[in-house]
Amino acid sequence: MPSTPVLPKLVGQRVKRREDPRLIQGRGTYVDDIALVGMRYVAFKRSDIAHGRIRSIDVAAAAGMDGVEAVYTGADIAKILPPMPIGTPFPSPEHRAVAVDTVRFVGEPVAVVVASDRYAARDAVDAIGVEYDPLPAVVDTEAAMTGKPTVIHPDFPNNLAVALVPSGTGVTPDGAVDDSAIDAAFAAAEVVVSQRMVNHRLAPSAIEPRGVVAHYEPGKGTMTIWSSTQNPHILRTFIAALNGMGQDQVRAIAPEVGGGFGAKINIYAEEYVCSAVSKALGIPVKWNEDRTEAFVATTHGRDIIAYVDVAAKRDGTLLGLKIRLIADIGAYNMLLTAAIPTLTQMMANATYNIPAIRTTLTEVFTNKTPTDAYRGAGRPEATYFVERAMDMLARELKMDPAELRKKNFIQPAQFPFTTQAGAVYDSGDYAKALDRALEIADWERLKRERDAAQRQGRLVGLGLSMYVEVCGLGPSAALPTGGWEHAQVTVERDGRISATTGASPHGQGNETTFAQMIADQFGVPIEHVSILHGDTGVVKQGIGTFGSRSQAVGGTAIHLAGGKVKSKMAKFAAALMEASEDDLVFENGTIAVKGAPASAKPFAAVAAYAYVPVPLPPGLEPGLSDEAFWEPANNTYPFGCHISMLEIDRETGEPTLLKLVAVDDAGTLINPLIVEGQIHGGLAQGIGQAMIEEVVYSEDGQLVTGSFMDYAMPRAIDFPRFELDATVTPTPVNPLGAKGVGEAGTLGSTPCIVSAAVDALSEFGVKHVDMMLRPEKLWRIIHQGGRP
Amino acid sequence: MIATSFEYTRAASVEAAIARLQSANGAAKLIAGGHSLVPLMKLRLSEPGLLIDIARIPGLAGIRELGGRIEIGAATVHHDVATSSLLRATCPMLADAAASIGDQQVRNRGTLGGSLAHADPAADYPAAMLALDADIHVRGASGARVVKADAFFRGLFTVDLKADEIITAVQFSPTKAAAYAKLHQRASHFAIVGVAAALEVAGGAIASARIGVTGATPSAKRLRAVELRLKGTKATVEAIADASRDAGAELADVNGDLHASEEYRRAMVAVFTRRALTAALERAR
Q1: Is the dihedral of CA B258, A376, A661, A15 positive or negative?
Q2: Do A290 and B2 touch (CB under 8 A)?
Q3: Hey, are the CB atoms on A718 and B186 less than 8 Å from each other?
């Protein structure tokens, strides 16, 4: 037998995604592909005004239409469904799945139709007549904070969902505040840079809108719910609770999920309503969101105003940082809404030694679609505010932006590093990522190119940004849903391996990365490994995929469960081979005694023996299946450096991104190809936000950007070729060393692009320009005296 | 995004389509690529009772040379215009304009006739038709007629086309000395401002200029003041810059929306008029 392994080790290799062939060929099964006998269709009548009292709802005409089985008003739904809960410990106004007497945003459900097909359901929606007494629409975030033009929820004066949460230096966990350090920092400052910045609202816009099939079976008293969700186990918990059922009686299934980007974490009104209606009628029902609905009914992201002040010495040494955050959360608290901006506070320390930091957070209700997680969820906002401020400081001090960063970096020897907000950064080498990015971009040459272009009258600029984010979300103390992940690994009787994961991938490629790990662990071909996910009837326990946690937390659970099974399998092999279990090697589809390849038994033969163990080795139970719950002791903190070059057309204001370099450190990489794909996607959404994507409401609370005709979804033509590289600084938090990468691309990209735009506009004396880089906005700076 | 209920029929000939249009008495819409109509139907902004599909009528699609003129069938998709070797050789401006429409999916399905009949204020083709002084061939129950592009676009989504009439083709004299310049709206890739310019240059002077602008006004328009200023001037970049400078200021009724205010659009009309004319001049050489 050959002495070198026949099967390559797969971890660390650029293995192509196993998911892709079926998805590319249209062979995936999404919620809308689910069809059940007797299934009916649900459609929602939605508010077309931003704010008003419901004077009357006339459902008679709709109820009498062909094919219509039932019509529910908000009052009807309230009889079968309690108010919707949230997942954070913040106070929240009562939120009914279907509005009962007041509507508070365009798109809020006001009635529900159940019909024989989706066309009849849609037609019936048009036949429902709703009369409103309009109320003033609360649209301007900062005006809303003073109760103007009105108050949306009576129990929340001045529309303050969260009045003021302080964080940082001098703030104790019980909320006591000592200002002496932050005041001293600013008193000692030789230079202070101050700026109001807006990190504007975005529409997540997954390629697959949301969808639900709910099937209550009266005979069994059980519910099965299919949903396009990132976290079927959390969905199961909430669906059971609101329907008065046990978790053992509800099965939640996330089939193929066509993207989530954080917006499919929340448990939505439509999921609750479909489950309650199915239970009330005793029939399966389906609802599929259309794109128009997705723009108003699926949560939005970002929308935070920041007042940033940085105090420093003239040599660039940072002394203090103050950020006043005002988050526009829309009309209601959703599952994680209130917690998202707290992550902005948590990450305000960025990659720097800052002796004193004070952030405060206010969250404001407005008559807009509620916000919740969106790729990055609070961390891109922190990165944007701090990195833009760093860039402004560099400009003020006439320092190279890279030099200013280097001068203030948290040093490798300082890890684990406790931030001013109390987070504990696990590991990092920020200068290494920065230096690598400078090298790839050829920073000095780029600066010469920029200078030469500017001398020719071209508006060319450079931007640079560092980032650090919090990923691998856990432990349970930090996550009300539980901060662990679960896996079960089973070596089947034929020697193939199935593994379940509570992570619920929807684009992250875990069917590939987890299979790579297991193939290596057991020395079997990857083709013999199946990763099962997204079904609480198959996956015993789980939390879900969000916060770049699937590999770091879910992957570790897989690794640990696999280790348990491998250890048991070694005992069976040892009995079969009359060898010591400690001397066995698993490779090339065999189990052999180390150094004695002739002893090798086929992997499948050992598996078969474990299931028909004659004789049964003493002390062993039959079978090869075990599970693991993995709860990390801490989050992980990936980091990186992004550099961009951008040119603005002097005549039109149109920006063109010429170059984007991203060096990301996500710890150990299981599959660099998939990591690059994740970075590409994150960059696309970051560049989208910086340059072309923006949710805009009119003064009366109508969504102006309600379709892809007006909301610019970034496409390949909008980007240059990305230049990527990685540094690898493993985390000590988990045995894989993996940190997480799903959101990273959104963090560094926005500030480095805006900084490049400001650099390009330097001849006009511009210090800051808010995203998005709308051509007209830039044109006005160029042609109307430098005012954005 | 579900349309109201409608009937659908595929017409085998232009005559059959006209007959169905007549019998439907205003309740029918023609459909070819459907890239403007279907989104409106899904939003229930358009609720036709009958769709008459004309996409596969024999002879309605195609690009051909007719005695020095070019004829393009109404059902020709944008992609075929954009990639036509005949147009690339004889009238590259029109191929460029087609290539700038929407995205690949739109260009694979959307048709020239559909775009002209729909007359979206930001569509690219109308500007090109104006610059080419194209003839728009129309047929209806009362026979065939030819409408000059100048007279065809009458206002917002409004053209000189009766309820029972079909655009069958456009005809024009091709010119190499023409160019299209466009400021893209980044979501839809419609034109915030699109300018098509065609020049006749003789003896170092501009003998005539035709300029069509789209996106700026409720319907595509000729920039006659600029055309007049150019007539007889030296064929130079400087003369073009001088003539273009006030191109936007001279327009009445300029659009303003989320993507571009009226003021910005006026400024962009001047910029893109100059750019289109400069590129046209380059091609004239």
Answers
A1: negative
A2: yes
A3: yes
The residue written with tokens 């939390």 in the block is A543
Rounded (5°) CA angle A32-A35-A37: 155
Tokens of A88: 């954070």
Phi, psi (5° rounding) for residue A130?
A: -120, 130
pLDDT of residue B264: 97
Nearest Cα residue to A417 out of A213, A603, A634, A632: A634
Q: Position A292: which residue type? A: T
Q: Which residues of B touch A718 (CB under 8 A)?
A: 186
Q: What does the angle CA A21 – CA A23 – CA A24 come to, to the nearest 5 degrees? A: 65
- For chain A, how many residues are written? 788
Residue A351 to chain B, least CA–CA distance (Å): 34
Q: What is the CA radius of gyration of chain A?
A: 28
Name the amino acid, one letter, at A423. A
A342, A307 in Cβ contact below 8 A?
Answer: no
Chain B residues with CB under 8 Å of A123 CB are: 4-5
- Beta strand A222-227 pairing with A211-217: antiparallel
Closest CA to A179 of A164, A169, A191, A190: A169
The predicted structure's pLDDT at residue B143: 96
Amino acid at A372: D
Exposure of A619 in the CB half-sphere (CA atoms within 13 A): 4
Task: List the structure tokens of A29.
Answer: 């099964």
**What's at B27, amino acid-wise?**
A
CA dist A376 and A373 (Å) reads 8
Q: Residue A309: in which H helix or E strand, if any?
A: strand A301-312
| DSSP-derived 3-state class of residue B27 | coil
Please give the average per-residue pLDDT across A573-585, as a whole number: 95
Average per-residue pLDDT for chain A: 96
* pLDDT for A107 beyond 60: yes
Please tell me the distance from the alpha carbon of residue A363 to that of residue A337, in angstroms, as a whole number.
Answer: 10
CA distance A120 to A114: 9
Put simply, the answer to whether A705 touches B258 (Cβ < 8 Å) is yes
Model ipTM? 0.96
The residues, any chain, with a CB within 8 Å of residue B25's CB and separated by 6 or more, are none
A residues 635-694 near B, CB within 8 Å?
651-652, 654, 691-692
Is B260 within 8 Å of chain A by CB? yes
- B259 CB neighbours in chain A (<8 A) are 710, 774, 776
